[in-house]
Amino acid sequence: MIIMRTYIRFLNLLFSIFGSIDNSLGITDVKVQYSPANESSNIDNKGKSFNYMWLHDTASTRGLLYPRESESREVRTLDGIWRFLPSDVNDPMKGVRDCWFKTDLDKVRPTHPMPVPSSYNDISVDTKLRDHIGTVWYETKFFIPHSWNMDQRIWLRFGSVHYAAIVWINGEKVMSHSTGHLPFESEITNYVNFGAENRLTLICDNTLVNSTIPQGTIVEEESDNGKVMIQRYTFDFFNYAGIHRTVHLYTTPAVYIEDIKVSTDLIDNHIGLVHYEVIVNGNERKAVVYDPPIEPLYIHVQMRNKEGKIVAHSVSKTTLNGTIVIKDVMPWWPYLMNPEPGYLYTMELYLHAVDESLLDVYRLKVGIRTLKWNNSTFLLNDAPIYLRGFGRHEDSDVRPKFEMFSFFTFMILDTWKRI
Protein backbone atom coordinates (compact mmCIF):
# COMPACT_ATOMS: atom_id res chain seq x y z
CA MET A 1 0.00 0.00 0.00
CA ILE A 2 2.85 2.38 0.76
CA ILE A 3 4.28 1.64 -2.68
CA MET A 4 0.88 2.37 -4.25
CA ARG A 5 0.60 5.71 -2.45
CA THR A 6 4.11 6.67 -3.51
CA TYR A 7 3.35 5.71 -7.11
CA ILE A 8 0.18 7.82 -7.16
CA ARG A 9 2.00 10.82 -5.70
CA PHE A 10 4.78 10.41 -8.26
CA LEU A 11 2.29 10.36 -11.13
CA ASN A 12 0.48 13.39 -9.72
CA LEU A 13 3.81 15.21 -9.55
CA LEU A 14 4.50 14.40 -13.19
CA PHE A 15 1.07 15.70 -14.18
CA SER A 16 1.62 18.90 -12.18
CA ILE A 17 5.03 19.46 -13.79
CA PHE A 18 4.30 18.60 -17.41
CA GLY A 19 0.53 19.18 -17.59
CA SER A 20 -1.33 19.11 -20.89
CA ILE A 21 -0.73 21.09 -24.05
CA ASP A 22 -3.90 23.09 -24.57
CA ASN A 23 -5.36 25.63 -26.94
CA SER A 24 -6.33 29.15 -25.95
CA LEU A 25 -9.38 27.97 -24.02
CA GLY A 26 -7.78 24.82 -22.68
CA ILE A 27 -10.38 22.61 -24.38
CA THR A 28 -11.47 21.18 -27.68
CA ASP A 29 -14.85 19.84 -28.71
CA VAL A 30 -15.82 17.03 -26.37
CA LYS A 31 -16.82 13.86 -28.18
CA VAL A 32 -18.67 11.85 -25.57
CA GLN A 33 -18.32 8.10 -25.78
CA TYR A 34 -20.35 5.77 -23.64
CA SER A 35 -17.99 3.16 -22.26
CA PRO A 36 -15.00 3.26 -19.87
CA ALA A 37 -11.64 3.34 -21.60
CA ASN A 38 -9.92 -0.03 -21.76
CA GLU A 39 -12.08 -1.32 -18.93
CA SER A 40 -11.55 -5.06 -18.51
CA SER A 41 -14.70 -6.63 -17.07
CA ASN A 42 -17.15 -9.25 -18.22
CA ILE A 43 -20.14 -6.90 -18.30
CA ASP A 44 -21.49 -4.54 -20.91
CA ASN A 45 -20.31 -1.09 -19.79
CA LYS A 46 -22.11 0.77 -22.57
CA GLY A 47 -23.68 3.87 -21.15
CA LYS A 48 -22.23 3.34 -17.67
CA SER A 49 -19.69 6.16 -17.52
CA PHE A 50 -17.40 8.61 -19.28
CA ASN A 51 -14.67 7.50 -21.60
CA TYR A 52 -11.77 9.57 -20.29
CA MET A 53 -10.13 9.47 -23.70
CA TRP A 54 -12.22 12.49 -24.69
CA LEU A 55 -10.42 14.52 -22.02
CA HIS A 56 -7.04 14.50 -23.79
CA ASP A 57 -7.28 18.27 -24.35
CA THR A 58 -8.08 19.62 -20.92
CA ALA A 59 -7.76 22.85 -19.00
CA SER A 60 -4.13 23.82 -18.52
CA THR A 61 -2.39 23.41 -15.17
CA ARG A 62 0.52 25.63 -16.27
CA GLY A 63 0.89 28.99 -14.61
CA LEU A 64 -1.65 28.30 -11.91
CA LEU A 65 -0.74 31.05 -9.49
CA TYR A 66 -3.11 30.94 -6.56
CA PRO A 67 -5.76 33.69 -6.86
CA ARG A 68 -4.71 36.60 -4.64
CA GLU A 69 -6.06 40.13 -4.44
CA SER A 70 -3.71 42.98 -5.26
CA GLU A 71 -3.75 46.50 -6.66
CA SER A 72 -4.51 45.00 -10.08
CA ARG A 73 -6.56 41.90 -9.23
CA GLU A 74 -9.92 41.12 -7.65
CA VAL A 75 -10.91 37.75 -6.21
CA ARG A 76 -14.28 36.25 -5.31
CA THR A 77 -15.32 32.75 -4.31
CA LEU A 78 -18.39 30.94 -5.54
CA ASP A 79 -18.42 28.67 -2.48
CA GLY A 80 -21.80 28.13 -0.91
CA ILE A 81 -24.94 26.11 -1.50
CA TRP A 82 -25.25 24.93 -5.11
CA ARG A 83 -28.03 22.98 -6.82
CA PHE A 84 -27.22 19.29 -7.17
CA LEU A 85 -28.67 16.51 -9.32
CA PRO A 86 -27.43 12.89 -9.54
CA SER A 87 -27.72 11.20 -12.93
CA ASP A 88 -29.40 7.86 -13.47
CA VAL A 89 -26.95 5.05 -12.76
CA ASN A 90 -28.15 3.19 -15.86
CA ASP A 91 -27.85 6.23 -18.14
CA PRO A 92 -25.25 8.67 -16.74
CA MET A 93 -24.79 10.55 -20.03
CA LYS A 94 -28.46 11.39 -20.56
CA GLY A 95 -27.93 14.92 -19.29
CA VAL A 96 -25.19 15.54 -21.84
CA ARG A 97 -27.26 14.16 -24.70
CA ASP A 98 -30.31 16.16 -23.61
CA CYS A 99 -28.24 19.34 -23.02
CA TRP A 100 -29.20 19.91 -19.39
CA PHE A 101 -26.52 22.61 -19.32
CA LYS A 102 -28.65 24.76 -21.64
CA THR A 103 -31.27 25.45 -18.96
CA ASP A 104 -31.75 25.60 -15.20
CA LEU A 105 -31.39 22.17 -13.61
CA ASP A 106 -34.59 22.79 -11.62
CA LYS A 107 -36.46 22.76 -14.93
CA VAL A 108 -35.07 19.31 -15.72
CA ARG A 109 -35.70 17.55 -12.42
CA PRO A 110 -36.01 18.50 -8.75
CA THR A 111 -32.55 19.35 -7.37
CA HIS A 112 -31.02 19.10 -3.91
CA PRO A 113 -28.98 21.72 -2.02
CA MET A 114 -25.29 20.80 -1.90
CA PRO A 115 -22.47 22.64 -0.09
CA VAL A 116 -19.45 23.53 -2.19
CA PRO A 117 -16.75 22.56 -1.47
CA SER A 118 -17.58 19.13 -0.06
CA SER A 119 -17.85 15.47 -0.97
CA TYR A 120 -21.44 14.74 -1.89
CA ASN A 121 -21.28 11.14 -0.63
CA ASP A 122 -21.77 11.82 3.09
CA ILE A 123 -23.86 15.01 3.01
CA SER A 124 -27.16 13.15 3.07
CA VAL A 125 -28.21 9.90 4.76
CA ASP A 126 -29.02 8.31 1.41
CA THR A 127 -26.86 5.23 0.90
CA LYS A 128 -27.58 5.34 -2.83
CA LEU A 129 -25.90 8.75 -3.06
CA ARG A 130 -23.01 7.62 -0.87
CA ASP A 131 -22.32 4.65 -3.15
CA HIS A 132 -23.30 6.41 -6.40
CA ILE A 133 -21.20 5.49 -9.44
CA GLY A 134 -21.23 7.76 -12.46
CA THR A 135 -22.13 11.37 -13.07
CA VAL A 136 -23.68 14.13 -10.99
CA TRP A 137 -24.58 17.70 -11.89
CA TYR A 138 -23.89 20.98 -10.08
CA GLU A 139 -25.27 24.44 -10.80
CA THR A 140 -24.95 27.92 -9.34
CA LYS A 141 -25.60 31.49 -10.49
CA PHE A 142 -23.51 34.61 -10.05
CA PHE A 143 -23.24 38.23 -11.18
CA ILE A 144 -20.33 39.97 -12.90
CA PRO A 145 -20.09 43.72 -12.14
CA HIS A 146 -19.82 46.22 -15.00
CA SER A 147 -16.48 47.37 -13.55
CA TRP A 148 -14.91 44.04 -14.54
CA ASN A 149 -15.49 44.90 -18.20
CA MET A 150 -12.70 47.52 -18.18
CA ASP A 151 -9.66 45.89 -19.82
CA GLN A 152 -9.87 42.92 -17.46
CA ARG A 153 -9.60 39.19 -18.01
CA ILE A 154 -12.01 37.04 -15.99
CA TRP A 155 -10.97 33.59 -14.84
CA LEU A 156 -12.82 30.64 -13.32
CA ARG A 157 -10.73 28.29 -11.17
CA PHE A 158 -11.64 24.98 -9.52
CA GLY A 159 -9.28 23.83 -6.79
CA SER A 160 -10.31 20.20 -7.31
CA VAL A 161 -13.17 18.21 -8.82
CA HIS A 162 -13.03 14.45 -8.45
CA TYR A 163 -12.60 12.75 -10.84
CA ALA A 164 -13.51 14.24 -14.24
CA ALA A 165 -15.54 17.31 -15.11
CA ILE A 166 -16.95 19.47 -17.89
CA VAL A 167 -17.85 23.11 -17.16
CA TRP A 168 -20.38 25.31 -18.98
CA ILE A 169 -21.07 29.03 -18.58
CA ASN A 170 -24.51 30.16 -19.80
CA GLY A 171 -24.80 26.94 -21.79
CA GLU A 172 -21.40 27.27 -23.49
CA LYS A 173 -18.62 24.80 -22.72
CA VAL A 174 -15.52 26.56 -21.35
CA MET A 175 -13.28 23.75 -20.08
CA SER A 176 -12.93 20.11 -19.10
CA HIS A 177 -10.53 18.28 -16.83
CA SER A 178 -9.61 14.86 -15.46
CA THR A 179 -7.40 13.72 -12.58
CA GLY A 180 -9.36 15.03 -9.65
CA HIS A 181 -6.47 16.01 -7.39
CA LEU A 182 -5.25 19.06 -9.33
CA PRO A 183 -6.62 22.59 -9.80
CA PHE A 184 -7.73 23.75 -13.23
CA GLU A 185 -8.93 27.03 -14.69
CA SER A 186 -9.92 28.83 -17.86
CA GLU A 187 -10.50 32.39 -18.98
CA ILE A 188 -14.25 33.04 -19.28
CA THR A 189 -14.25 36.71 -20.32
CA ASN A 190 -16.06 36.02 -23.59
CA TYR A 191 -18.70 33.79 -21.99
CA VAL A 192 -20.10 35.95 -19.18
CA ASN A 193 -22.78 38.63 -19.09
CA PHE A 194 -21.59 41.87 -17.47
CA GLY A 195 -24.02 43.48 -15.09
CA ALA A 196 -26.32 40.46 -15.36
CA GLU A 197 -26.82 36.98 -13.98
CA ASN A 198 -24.69 34.07 -15.19
CA ARG A 199 -25.29 30.35 -14.85
CA LEU A 200 -22.44 27.91 -14.10
CA THR A 201 -23.12 24.22 -14.77
CA LEU A 202 -20.74 21.34 -14.08
CA ILE A 203 -20.96 17.60 -14.63
CA CYS A 204 -18.71 15.45 -12.44
CA ASP A 205 -17.90 11.75 -12.86
CA ASN A 206 -16.36 9.64 -10.09
CA THR A 207 -15.80 6.45 -12.08
CA LEU A 208 -12.36 4.89 -11.67
CA VAL A 209 -11.04 2.66 -14.44
CA ASN A 210 -7.70 1.22 -15.51
CA SER A 211 -6.56 4.54 -16.97
CA THR A 212 -7.39 6.79 -14.00
CA ILE A 213 -5.26 7.84 -11.03
CA PRO A 214 -5.93 6.02 -8.77
CA GLN A 215 -7.19 3.01 -10.67
CA GLY A 216 -10.35 1.00 -10.22
CA THR A 217 -12.77 -1.36 -11.92
CA ILE A 218 -16.55 -1.59 -12.20
CA VAL A 219 -18.26 -4.91 -11.59
CA GLU A 220 -21.87 -6.03 -11.49
CA GLU A 221 -23.01 -8.02 -8.46
CA GLU A 222 -26.23 -9.59 -7.24
CA SER A 223 -27.97 -7.98 -4.26
CA ASP A 224 -31.33 -8.20 -2.50
CA ASN A 225 -32.56 -5.56 -4.94
CA GLY A 226 -31.20 -7.26 -8.02
CA LYS A 227 -28.00 -6.52 -9.90
CA VAL A 228 -26.05 -3.43 -8.79
CA MET A 229 -22.90 -1.72 -10.04
CA ILE A 230 -19.95 -1.85 -7.62
CA GLN A 231 -16.74 0.19 -7.79
CA ARG A 232 -13.70 -1.92 -6.89
CA TYR A 233 -10.29 -0.48 -5.99
CA THR A 234 -7.16 -1.51 -4.11
CA PHE A 235 -6.35 1.64 -2.10
CA ASP A 236 -7.23 2.13 1.57
CA PHE A 237 -9.52 5.18 1.37
CA PHE A 238 -13.06 5.80 0.20
CA ASN A 239 -13.53 7.19 -3.31
CA TYR A 240 -15.11 10.47 -2.21
CA ALA A 241 -16.28 12.65 -5.09
CA GLY A 242 -17.57 16.12 -5.91
CA ILE A 243 -16.21 19.67 -5.89
CA HIS A 244 -13.55 19.25 -3.22
CA ARG A 245 -11.88 22.65 -3.18
CA THR A 246 -12.80 26.33 -3.40
CA VAL A 247 -14.20 27.71 -6.66
CA HIS A 248 -12.62 31.08 -7.44
CA LEU A 249 -13.73 33.84 -9.77
CA TYR A 250 -10.95 36.38 -10.28
CA THR A 251 -9.61 39.04 -12.61
CA THR A 252 -6.24 39.86 -14.11
CA PRO A 253 -5.21 42.77 -16.33
CA ALA A 254 -5.10 42.21 -20.09
CA VAL A 255 -1.31 41.87 -19.78
CA TYR A 256 -0.59 39.92 -16.62
CA ILE A 257 1.88 37.81 -14.65
CA GLU A 258 1.02 34.24 -15.63
CA ASP A 259 3.65 32.30 -13.71
CA ILE A 260 6.65 32.78 -11.42
CA LYS A 261 9.54 30.34 -11.20
CA VAL A 262 11.61 30.64 -8.01
CA SER A 263 14.68 28.79 -6.75
CA THR A 264 16.83 29.68 -3.75
CA ASP A 265 20.42 29.29 -2.56
CA LEU A 266 22.25 30.00 0.69
CA ILE A 267 25.83 31.16 1.23
CA ASP A 268 27.03 30.08 4.68
CA ASN A 269 23.41 30.33 5.85
CA HIS A 270 23.89 34.12 6.10
CA ILE A 271 23.28 35.34 2.55
CA GLY A 272 20.20 34.28 0.63
CA LEU A 273 19.89 34.19 -3.14
CA VAL A 274 16.45 34.21 -4.74
CA HIS A 275 16.54 33.38 -8.45
CA TYR A 276 13.33 34.25 -10.28
CA GLU A 277 11.82 34.10 -13.74
CA VAL A 278 8.51 35.81 -14.53
CA ILE A 279 6.28 34.57 -17.34
CA VAL A 280 3.99 37.23 -18.79
CA ASN A 281 0.94 36.71 -20.96
CA GLY A 282 -1.04 39.21 -23.01
CA ASN A 283 -1.16 40.47 -26.58
CA GLU A 284 0.43 43.85 -25.84
CA ARG A 285 3.78 42.17 -25.14
CA LYS A 286 4.45 41.99 -28.90
CA ALA A 287 2.78 45.26 -29.88
CA VAL A 288 5.80 47.60 -29.83
CA VAL A 289 9.20 47.29 -31.53
CA TYR A 290 12.12 49.24 -30.04
CA ASP A 291 15.43 50.22 -31.60
CA PRO A 292 17.68 49.24 -29.97
CA PRO A 293 15.41 46.33 -29.00
CA ILE A 294 14.40 46.17 -25.35
CA GLU A 295 11.55 44.49 -23.56
CA PRO A 296 8.37 46.59 -23.72
CA LEU A 297 7.73 45.34 -20.18
CA TYR A 298 9.93 45.29 -17.13
CA ILE A 299 9.68 43.81 -13.66
CA HIS A 300 10.35 45.33 -10.26
CA VAL A 301 10.78 42.75 -7.49
CA GLN A 302 11.18 43.40 -3.79
CA MET A 303 11.38 41.13 -0.75
CA ARG A 304 9.71 41.90 2.57
CA ASN A 305 10.50 40.14 5.82
CA LYS A 306 7.89 38.89 8.27
CA GLU A 307 7.62 42.37 9.80
CA GLY A 308 6.87 43.90 6.38
CA LYS A 309 10.23 45.66 5.98
CA ILE A 310 11.81 45.72 2.51
CA VAL A 311 15.12 43.83 2.81
CA ALA A 312 16.09 43.58 -0.89
CA HIS A 313 14.86 44.60 -4.32
CA SER A 314 15.69 44.25 -7.98
CA VAL A 315 14.68 46.14 -11.13
CA SER A 316 15.25 44.50 -14.51
CA LYS A 317 14.48 46.60 -17.59
CA THR A 318 15.89 44.18 -20.15
CA THR A 319 14.72 40.77 -18.97
CA LEU A 320 12.00 39.26 -16.81
CA ASN A 321 14.40 37.24 -14.67
CA GLY A 322 17.15 37.89 -12.18
CA THR A 323 18.57 37.24 -8.72
CA ILE A 324 17.88 39.03 -5.44
CA VAL A 325 20.51 39.01 -2.68
CA ILE A 326 19.30 39.07 0.93
CA LYS A 327 21.89 39.76 3.62
CA ASP A 328 21.48 38.37 7.15
CA VAL A 329 18.88 36.04 5.73
CA MET A 330 16.46 33.97 7.84
CA PRO A 331 16.53 30.50 6.27
CA TRP A 332 13.46 28.31 6.19
CA TRP A 333 13.65 25.51 8.76
CA PRO A 334 11.11 22.84 9.71
CA TYR A 335 9.64 22.52 13.18
CA LEU A 336 12.14 21.66 15.96
CA MET A 337 15.20 22.53 13.84
CA ASN A 338 15.16 26.26 14.56
CA PRO A 339 13.63 28.60 17.17
CA GLU A 340 11.68 30.30 14.35
CA PRO A 341 10.55 27.54 11.97
CA GLY A 342 8.78 28.07 8.68
CA TYR A 343 10.10 31.60 8.05
CA LEU A 344 8.62 33.08 4.88
CA TYR A 345 9.45 36.24 2.98
CA THR A 346 6.89 38.03 0.82
CA MET A 347 8.04 38.42 -2.77
CA GLU A 348 6.33 41.39 -4.42
CA LEU A 349 6.36 41.55 -8.21
CA TYR A 350 5.37 44.73 -10.06
CA LEU A 351 4.95 44.45 -13.83
CA HIS A 352 5.42 47.77 -15.61
CA ALA A 353 4.95 48.94 -19.18
CA VAL A 354 7.78 50.78 -20.86
CA ASP A 355 6.05 54.08 -20.08
CA GLU A 356 6.34 53.27 -16.33
CA SER A 357 2.62 52.56 -15.94
CA LEU A 358 1.81 49.71 -13.56
CA LEU A 359 0.23 46.71 -15.27
CA ASP A 360 0.04 43.93 -12.69
CA VAL A 361 1.02 43.13 -9.09
CA TYR A 362 1.38 39.70 -7.49
CA ARG A 363 2.69 38.67 -4.06
CA LEU A 364 4.20 35.27 -3.38
CA LYS A 365 5.36 33.72 -0.10
CA VAL A 366 8.91 32.36 -0.40
CA GLY A 367 11.02 30.28 1.98
CA ILE A 368 14.79 30.35 1.43
CA ARG A 369 16.51 26.99 1.80
CA THR A 370 18.76 24.47 0.06
CA LEU A 371 18.25 20.76 -0.46
CA LYS A 372 21.10 18.32 -1.06
CA TRP A 373 21.60 14.60 -0.64
CA ASN A 374 24.20 11.89 -0.99
CA ASN A 375 24.18 8.11 -0.66
CA SER A 376 23.47 8.22 3.05
CA THR A 377 22.12 11.63 4.08
CA PHE A 378 19.46 14.18 3.14
CA LEU A 379 20.67 17.72 3.87
CA LEU A 380 18.47 20.73 4.48
CA ASN A 381 20.48 23.97 4.61
CA ASP A 382 23.59 21.74 4.88
CA ALA A 383 22.23 20.12 8.04
CA PRO A 384 21.24 16.43 8.09
CA ILE A 385 17.53 15.91 8.54
CA TYR A 386 15.60 12.85 9.66
CA LEU A 387 12.22 12.42 8.01
CA ARG A 388 9.42 10.76 9.93
CA GLY A 389 5.65 10.49 9.68
CA PHE A 390 3.22 9.17 7.12
CA GLY A 391 0.73 10.34 4.53
CA ARG A 392 -2.44 11.22 6.42
CA HIS A 393 -5.66 11.49 4.43
CA GLU A 394 -7.44 14.83 4.77
CA ASP A 395 -10.85 13.22 5.34
CA SER A 396 -13.01 14.92 7.96
CA ASP A 397 -16.12 13.59 9.68
CA VAL A 398 -18.63 16.04 8.21
CA ARG A 399 -17.49 17.05 4.70
CA PRO A 400 -14.88 14.39 3.93
CA LYS A 401 -12.48 15.97 1.40
CA PHE A 402 -13.40 19.55 2.22
CA GLU A 403 -10.48 21.95 2.69
CA MET A 404 -11.19 22.62 6.37
CA PHE A 405 -8.34 24.82 7.61
CA SER A 406 -9.40 24.67 11.26
CA PHE A 407 -9.36 20.87 11.12
CA PHE A 408 -5.96 20.81 9.38
CA THR A 409 -4.48 23.21 11.94
CA PHE A 410 -5.76 21.09 14.81
CA MET A 411 -4.24 17.94 13.30
CA ILE A 412 -0.87 19.67 12.76
CA LEU A 413 -0.74 21.02 16.32
CA ASP A 414 -1.86 17.67 17.70
CA THR A 415 0.93 15.95 15.76
CA TRP A 416 3.55 18.42 17.02
CA LYS A 417 2.36 17.86 20.58
CA ARG A 418 3.05 14.14 20.25
CA ILE A 419 6.60 14.54 18.89
Question: Could you describe the 3D structure shown?
Answer:
- Residues 255-369 form the Glycoside hydrolase family 2 immunoglobulin-like beta-sandwich domain.
- InterPro entries: Beta-gal/glucu_dom_sf, Galactose-bd-like_sf, GH, Glyco_hydro_2_N, Ig-like_fold, Ig-like_GH2.
- GO terms for molecular function: beta-glucuronidase activity; carbohydrate binding.
- This is Beta-glucuronidase.
- The structure is a single chain.
- With 419 residues, the protein is mostly beta strands.
- The protein has helices at residues 2-18, 94-97, 127-130, 405-418; strands at residues 75-77, 80-86, 112-116, 135-143, 152-158, 161-162, 164-169, 172-177, 184-187, 197-205, 217-223, 226-232, 242-243, 247-253, 256-267, 271-281, 297-304, 310-316, 321-327, 345-353, 358-366, 371-373, 378-380, 383-384.
- It folds into two domains: 2-253, Galactose-binding domain-like (Jelly Rolls); 257-369, Immunoglobulin-like (Sandwich), CATH 2.60.40.
- 9% of the residues lie in helices and 36% in strands.
- The protein has a six-stranded antiparallel β-sheet, with no helix packed on it.
